[in-house]
Specification:
about 90 residues
Length: about 90
């Protein structure tokens, strides 16, 4: 198993990454903060499912001949940080 040495990012590199992110939606955060904990979890789960659906739709357009199962594996690969060796 190969290990990768981590290199610390500079302040400029971090700033460049942050500049590419959408601004924080403070109104949405306040609304979610007012929910009970179980509803906060549900809101997060709905947001995650929405993101998966968007990626799934894009992949279905990009790979129209693949099965639903193959597309789902691509979605899983997209959102999974752990990488396994491909066959």
């Amino acid at each position: 198993m190969e290990t990768t040495k981590r290199v610390a990012l500079t302040r400029e590199e971090i700033a460049e990454i942050v500049r590419g992110l959408d601004p924080i939606d403070w109104v949405q955060l306040r609304l979610i903060a007012q929910l009970p904990p179980e509803e906060q979890i549900m809101a997060g789960m709905r947001a995650a499912e929405f993101a998966r659906a968007i990626v799934r739709g894009a992949l279905m357009e990009r790979f129209p001949n693949e099965t639903r199962s193959q597309i789902n594996m691509r979605v899983l690969r997209h959102f999974t940080t752990v990488r396994m060796e491909s066959k």
